[in-house]
Structure prediction request, 76 residues.
Amino acid sequence: MGTAGYPLDHATLDLHGTGRGVQHLRGVLVTAGALPERDGQLHALVRAIVSLISDVREPDDRFEATVLVAAIGEWL
Prediction:
C-alpha cells in the first residue's frame, strides 16, 4: 500500500473488501500504531446507509432520504 502509491489508511483497506485477510491486516496495523482505531460497527452502519440511499432512483426521494439520515445522525 504505502510503496504502491496508495496511502496507508482505512479507506485504502476498505477498497479491498471486508474479508478475513483485510480485517486481520487492519487489526495488525491498528495494534502496531500505523492506523488509528475506528468504530467498526459505526463504519458498517454508514456503509449500509450509503448503499440503501444509492439504491433510491428518484433524485427527490434520494434527497429526502439523505436529509432524514443526516437528521438522525445529528440526533445520535
Residues 42 and 48 are 10 Å apart (CA to CA). The helical segments are 10-14, 20-31, 40-55, 59-75. The mean pLDDT is 85.
